[in-house]
Design brief:
alpha/beta
Length: 222
């Protein structure tokens, strides 16, 4: 089924403070160039329509948030929502999250990495395109601060089970820690639009959290 058309973005909305092309970003990584302040960093991989970023940046104003989205239209939509909400602690990067983690982010720079409902790439020959694969997972471990968390949610049991097994094989992350599902308090009290749709259809969401060991190497100065 084709995705519904995205809502149009007000052409008068200034996205310059909330949308950046990954290849045009600060390399080496410079969080101050994006946020103008030091703060704990959370990163979302595959931000979609931006529901998580908008909500989390309001709930934790003392943190900085980076969303990375490959699809340009979705990255623009997420940035527009951040701009309309007046968020100064959240930005969108349009580009490949695998490249961001592999080539840009320094070690021990993030307190949390969020991966919610990544594309399962159902066909066996396409599974190499999945984001949750060994190279990315080892990069996530490197990027997390000691004690930092990886949050992974999906509605695909096979993807959940194989990813948890892979994390145990290729990283030293502690877990999985079970994440309880809480009742939604209002229509948009969900982490992502995909979680909302899945739960409204009474389908199962599989959730896990992993944490980097607290005796891991200290924060990088990069």
């Amino acid at each position: 089924m084709a995705r519904p058309a995205l809502r149009k973005i007000d052409p008068s909305l200034d996205l310059s403070g909330h949308l950046h092309a990954l290849e045009q970003g600060p390399i080496p990584w410079d969080a101050h160039a994006l946020f103008k302040r030091p703060a704990p960093l959370e990163i979302e991989v595959g931000s979609g329509k931006g529901m998580f970023l908008v909500a989390a940046s309001a709930e934790r104003p003392q943190h900085n948030f980076v969303g990375c989205e490959l699809a340009r239209n979705y990255a623009r939509l997420s940035a527009a929502r951040l701009a309309r909400a007046g968020r100064t602690n959240a930005v969108m990067l349009q580009g490949d999250a695998l490249q961001l983690f592999r080539d840009v982010l320094p070690a021990a720079c993030a307190v949390a990495v969020h991966v919610y409902f990544p594309d399962p790439w159902w066909k066996q020959r396409h599974r190499k395109r999945r984001v949750m694969k060994p190279g990315f997972l080892t990069d996530v471990e490197r990027v997390l601060e000691p004690g930092g968390s990886l949050h992974f949610w999906t509605d695909v049991r096979e993807y959940f089970d194989t990813t948890l097994e892979m994390i145990g094989e290729v990283t030293g992350l502690l877990g999985p820690f079970e994440v309880a599902q809480r009742p939604a308090e209002h229509e948009f009290d969900y982490r992502t639009h995909f979680e909302r749709r899945t739960r409204l259809h009474a389908e199962t969401v599989f959730r896990a959290e992993f944490r980097r060991r607290t005796d891991a190497p200290a924060r990088s100065e990069a």
